[in-house]
Specification:
Distance between the termini: 37 Å
Helix content: 25-40%
Shape: globular
Order of helices and strands: HHEHEHEEEEHEHEHHHEEEEEE
Number of strands: 14
Radius of gyration: 19 Å
Structural class: alpha/beta
Oligomer: single chain
Length: about 300
C-alpha cells in the first residue's frame, strides 16, 4: 500500500463528524469500555499505597498514571479510563478526529482535574515519528500505559506499531494494550454440530464479506487487512517489541455481526467502513453478513539493561 497513513488521514478528516451517532457505535462502544474496565488490573492501575489513593485507584500523593491513547479517534478509550487517571494524551493521524476528541475532552470528574488532550501525529512511520519522543507531553519512557483500540488493522506495519508504543512506556513497568479484530480462525467455536451449521449459514468472516461488497476497493484503501490477529500473532509482535512480559490475551464476549446497519459501519474508536447496503438494510447481492470477535491483549515492557 502506497501510503496507508495518508489514506486514513484523508478518509477520517472527511468523515469524522459521522461516527458518534452511528448504530454500530451502540454495540462497539460499550464492548470496548467494558473490556477495558473489566480488565483494569491488566493496565497498570495498581493500588500500591491504598491509604493515599482515592476510590478510583489514583495515587493522590504519589505517582500519577499516565495514559497514551493512540489512534484515539473520538476518545472512547480515554473516556473509558478517565475514572482511573488524571492524565490522558491522545494521538491520531486525523486532525478531524483530534478536533472532535478535544472538543469532548473531560476537564473535571468527581472533583478531580483531568488533563485530557490530543494532537495530530503519526508515531508509526518508519522515520521521524510524530509527536517526537522528545516532546515533553509524549516523551519516550514516560507513560504507564499505551493503548490502541480497533485501529491496528489500519496500520501498514503492525509489528512496528507495537514497537513504537513500547518505546513510549516506562521500562520495567509500562504496559502496552491492544484491542482489535480477532483472526477468523481463532473465533470461539459454537457448541454442538447443529449450532455450528447454523452459524456457518448466517454469517461469514468479516474480510470475506467485505470483499463481496460493491465498494470493497474503497474499504481496502484504509485497512492493512480485515483478517484480524491471533493470539500467536500478537504475542510475537509484543515479544519483538520488547513488551512481552506478563503477556495476557482474552476474547471479549459476544460476536459482532456486520450487517443491516445501513450507511457507513464504524468500529469502537470511530474508524469504519461503508458496506454498500441497499434500502432494505440487506447487503447488495444478498451476501452473508460479516461477523467478528474483538480481542484484548497486554504486555509489560522489559526493564532497561
Amino acid at each position: 500500500m502506497a501510503n496507508l497513513a495518508e489514506a486514513n488521514r484523508d478518509h477520517f478528516n472527511k468523515t469524522a463528524s459521522e461516527y458518534a451517532n452511528h448504530p454500530l457505535a451502540a454495540i462497539m462502544n460499550p464492548k470496548i469500555t467494558d473490556g477495558l474496565r473489566q480488565h483494569i488490573d491488566w493496565l497498570n492501575f495498581t493500588k500500591t499505597e491504598p491509604a493515599t489513593q482515592d476510590k478510583h485507584g489514583n495515587d493522590r500523593h504519589g505517582r500519577q498514571i499516565r495514559v497514551l491513547d493512540y489512534a484515539c479517534g473520538l476518545g472512547l478509550v480515554s473516556h473509558a479510563l478517565a475514572p482511573y487517571t488524571d492524565s490522558l494524551r491522545g494521538v491520531d493521524v486525523s486532525s478531524g478526529m483530534v478536533d472532535a476528541y478535544n472538543a469532548d475532552a473531560i476537564t473535571e470528574l468527581d472533583g478531580r482535574k483531568i488533563q485530557m488532550s490530543a494532537v495530530a501525529g503519526n508515531m508509526f512511520q518508519e522515520t521521524s515519528p510524530t509527536p517526537p519522543s522528545t516532546d515533553l507531553d509524549y516523551a519516550a519512557d514516560t507513560f504507564d500505559l499505551a493503548v490502541i483500540s480497533m485501529a491496528l488493522h489500519h496500520v501498514e506495519d503492525p509489528a512496528l506499531g507495537v514497537k513504537r508504543l513500547a518505546e513510549r512506556v516506562k521500562p520495567g513497568s509500562g504496559v502496552v494494550c491492544v484491542l482489535d479484530l480477532l483472526a477468523a480462525g481463532s473465533a470461539p467455536k459454537p457448541v454442538g454440530e447443529d449450532e455450528a451449521d447454523a452459524a456457518a449459514k448466517t454469517s461469514q468472516p468479516l474480510e470475506d464479506a467485505v470483499r463481496n461488497m460493491d465498494n470493497a476497493d474503497d474499504v481496502f484503501k484504509v485497512v492493512q487487512s480485515l483478517h484480524g490477529f491471533s493470539e500467536q500473532d500478537m504475542r510475537a509482535h509484543f515479544e519483538a517489541a520488547g513488551c512481552g512480559e506478563d503477556f495476557k490475551f482474552v476474547v471479549l464476549p459476544g460476536e459482532v455481526v456486520f450487517s443491516g446497519l445501513g450507511g457507513s459501519s464504524h468500529n469502537g474508536h470511530g474508524h469504519g467502513h461503508h458496506h454498500g447496503n441497499d434500502e432494505t438494510g440487506h447487503d447488495k447481492g444478498h451476501h452473508l453478513p460479516g461477523s467478528f470477535y474483538v480481542f484484548m491483549c497486554r504486555g509489560t515492557r522489559k526493564a532497561a539493561l
